[in-house]
Amino acid sequence: TLDRIDNNLGYVEGNLRWATRQQQANNARGKVGRSSKFKGVCYHKNNRKWTAQIRKNGKSHYIGSFSQEYEAAIAYVIEWAKLNLKTEELSKDQIEKLIDYFKNEG
To answer: Alpha carbon 41 to chain centroid distance?
Structure first.
């Protein structure tokens, strides 16, 4: 189906591509009012912890619970890299760049 490359722009020339449903789901905006500013991270009031989880091929994968939001974001980025970049180790600079990329992403 037809998809927008940048959701903030309309269906205009240069902002369109053919995409699968999975690509469109990955390109969707974040939920309004979510508890974290990072993708894949949410706060659970009951245990007062930040949890990180990731979706791959339609399945949700629990990463872990963390006392700090930023720790959960780092865990998400590392797991995302393992699943998508086929790498086991990232430098601190690479992690920071990926966190910035995922911040406020949907």
So the answer is: 8
Give the whole-angstrom CA distance, residue 74 versus residue 68: 10
What stretches of 5-82 adopt beta strand conformation (E)?
16-18, 41-44, 49-56, 59-66
Residue 68 clears pLDDT 90, i.e. is over it = yes
Asked if 7 and 15 touch (Cβ cutoff 8 Å), the reply is no
The 3-state DSSP class for residue 49 equals strand
95 contacts: CB under 8 Å, gap ≥ 6: 74, 77, 78
Non-local (6+) Cβ contacts of 57 within 8 A are 22
**69 token code pair:** 């939001």
pLDDT of 1-36, one tens digit each? Answer: 888 887 778 788 888 888 888 777 777 765 555 678
Q: Is this prediction's pTM over 0.90? A: no
